[in-house]
Specification:
pyruvate-formate lyase- activating enzyme, OB fold (Dihydrolipoamide Acetyltransferase, E2P), 5-stranded mixed beta barrel
Length: 496
């Protein structure tokens, strides 16, 4: 195995400081980023493109056309690393083809699989040039420079950077950002201190970190200036955010205060946040749902299980009734608030009674949508070593029952919208000619007859039909359209 650990630096000089290294002849490169996983990875991919832009890297839609390919990976789903190696095998052929033609493709693995399995990636796939984790992508210019310097000196080994640096990456990201479009992500919090026994996030993303409010507000303004009309505040535990207040002096805000401040920014129509932990949902944030009109009535609040026994084994540090009380309190502030959640089925030791408790919780709460998965062990997590692993056949049977229950609730929620009028932010063309699509306040996809002049508009739609995963309707008012900026509608597609 041959790889080089990236040299440790207290600070990164940023992209502009490395543009000189590449020379004028190199400032016309192409970049393809493939992203798996959560919205935080989507945000990270967009910021990687921003970091590389001063070096001349411009996004393209296919890896075949790219001088650099980055796989931004996720370690949450089952067989995550196998999927990465399968994709690397396909890219290896592209890299060889480019070399035969006299070109060069830099191949990089980023994200949580890179963080957790960096050395193994370089050992199993020595044609990979660079592996780095979620906390070090701000160093991309110097990492790329190091790879190229090694190639010029005849060193074929890849560069590995999976340390947790002392500096915050957010302090070194360029202020100039590529357009994210009408709906933009903004990372405010990262990492996790909860240590759920099934989860790798504390090991791949590190300890909880909250960005200062002033930095977040400045980025939000730039996103709005770039055409964003909706912003989603992101974090692994976003409602654990407690950042330095704009006035400094040791004062700190909670997420409720941040939501109110962002909502006041001129030009912002909608605001969302994800993902929340039930233990960090405080009164200030709940009250914002009843008092801030820009804050959408939709909360993703993972519960994972309805069994107190399983919740304790997961180290969730809340009970099923704690979750019920939090939801009841939320709905006191906003009666029409809709919920989504995450469920893990077949956690070690899950009995028929535990599974029945989860179904009971689903019936009690009522979810507009939800994500559900069979438990699969993650190396290095405590749950992977637990006895009483549930047989796969039992997991399959339970998951089918649970998903049928959740799908039924989603269909009922969508059907209840028929006949109502709701505001829809149109952000893309529909699948059929003469059709545009957008999102309801409750995150439902809505399509109507209309042309592209509607893109960027926030318009009232009367819902005429419900489908399993979307709604259809007609525009209530065919008057003047409040259009978005050209930057929002023509933003480059960075994420694959």
């Amino acid at each position: 195995m041959s790889f080089r650990a990236a040299p440790r630096r207290a600070r990164s000089p940023g992209s502009a400081g490395f543009a000189w290294w590449f020379g004028r002849q190199d400032l016309n490169k192409t970049l393809f980023i493939k992203t798996w996983g959560c919205q935080m990875n989507v945000y990270d991919s967009a910021r990687m493109a921003d970091v590389l832009a001063p070096l001349g890297y411009k996004p393209v839609d296919r890896p075949d056309d790219a001088d650099m390919v980055i796989l931004n990976t996720c370690h949450i789903r089952e067989k995550a690393s196998e999927k990465v190696f399968s994709e690397l095998g396909r890219l290896r052929a592209l890299k060889k083809r480019k070399a035969v033609g006299g070109g060069q493709m830099l191949l990089a693995v980023a994200g949580c699989v890179g963080q957790a399995e960096g050395a193994e990636i370089l050992a199993r796939a020595p044609y990979v040039d660079l592996v780095f984790g979620p906390q070090t992508f701000h160093r991309l210019p110097e990492l790329v420079a190091e790879v190229r310097e090694g190639r010029r000196n005849g060193d074929p080994g890849g560069v590995l950077d999976t340390e947790f640096p002392p500096e915050s990456k957010f302090d070194f990201l360029p202020e100039e950002q590529g357009g994210q479009g009408l709906s933009a992500f903004l990372a405010v919090q990262e990492g996790c201190d909860k240590f759920c026994t099934f989860c790798v996030v504390p090991y791949t993303r590190g300890a909880e970190f909250s960005r200062p409010a002033a930095s977040i507000l400045a980025e939000a303004r730039r996103l709005i200036q770039g055409g964003a009309r909706e912003i989603t505040l992101l974090g692994q535990n976003v409602n654990a955010w407690h950042g330095e207040a704009p006035e400094g002096g040791g004062h700190r805000w909670g997420l409720g205060s941040l939501v109110r401040a962002v909502a006041e920014l001129e030009g912002l129509a909608r605001l969302r946040y994800t993902t929340s932990h039930p233990r960090d949902l405080d009164e200030a944030l709940m009250s914002a749902h009843g008092e801030v009109p820009q804050l959408m009535p939709f909360v993703h609040l993972p519960v994972q299980s309805g069994s107190d026994t399983i919740l304790a084994a997961m180290n969730r540090r809340h009970t099923a009734d704690d979750y019920r009380r939090q939801v009841d309190r939320l709905r006191q502030f906003r009666a029409d608030l809709a919920l989504s959640s995450d469920f893990i089925i077949g956690f070690p030791g899950e009995s028929d009674a535990d599974f029945a408790a989860t179904l009971a919780l689903i019936d009690d709460i009522g979810f507009a949508q939800a994500y559900s998965f069979k438990y699969s062990p993650r190396p290095g997590t405590p749950a992977a070593e637990l006895d009483q692993q549930v047989p796969e056949a039992v997991k399959d049977e339970r998951l089918a029952i649970l998903q049928d229950r959740l799908n039924s609730q989603q269909r009922a929620f969508n059907q209840a919208a028929v006949g109502s009028v709701m505001p829809v932010l149109f952000d893309r063309s529909g699948r059929r000619p003469g059709q545009v699509m957008g999102r309801s306040p409750f995150m439902q996809a809505v399509h109507v007859a209309g042309d592209v002049s509607r893109l960027g508009a926030l318009a009232d739609v009367r819902i005429t039909a419900a489908h399993p995963n979307s709604l259809s309707g007609r525009l209530v008012d065919s008057g003047p359209v409040e259009a978005a900026s050209a930057d929002a509608l023509q933003a480059p597609e960075v994420i694959a």
